[in-house]
Structure prediction request, 234 residues.
Amino acid sequence: MFDKIFGAASVALIAIGAVQPSFAQSVAADDCATGVHAIIARGQGPGNPNSTLDVMVTLQDLILAQIPGSTSLGLPFNYNEENKFDSVYNGAHLMQSYVTEYHKSCPQSKMAVVGYSLIYVQGAVVMTDAVCGTSSLLLSPVAPLDASYNKFVIAAIAYGDETFFPLQKWDKGNCTLGLGQFPRLDPAECEPFADALQNYCDIGDSRCCGILPLDGDAPTTPTWQSTTRMWSTS
Prediction:
């Protein structure tokens, strides 16, 4: 189910739009998701530099349409291009807080956490650092999410993750030799969430699959299209 949903979203034109702000995850029992609750750390793109609540609308709509009883929101982390490392650090802690708060309110609900890095170091790293903790050089240390949450976080999806490290069981796509700009040096920290984690990266996307760290930019959408063709036949 989740492979189909997240794969379909990646081949679509990713529209960046806004959702109603939500700054707390404490919700009434009647409002708990019976499908899945998705927390989406978006990508920052040109044309809307001041918004902190934009999400991947296509993906959000697929989740809500294909998994009845689902809810979703954009993680309101304060992205700042000039101080992106602090933004990622704060965003990872905020995502962890949203996961733990939501679980306290809705202990029977399942969650999906999603991160997308469009141009700068951000959404995908926020998500993977929130789940796995930090093990990349230059990034401020974040402890991993407590392993007990692996019963409730049933999908952890990254697109264009700058901490990508090849040949991990959760890697998706054809990047087998390249590294992210800030490669994860201790991928084993992700193991408690291995069944949920899917890290999508293809050759040509140097954010996650550069031959050397800090390689130049590459278009994102074409590499996702080739990956989606693989998902559609799996």
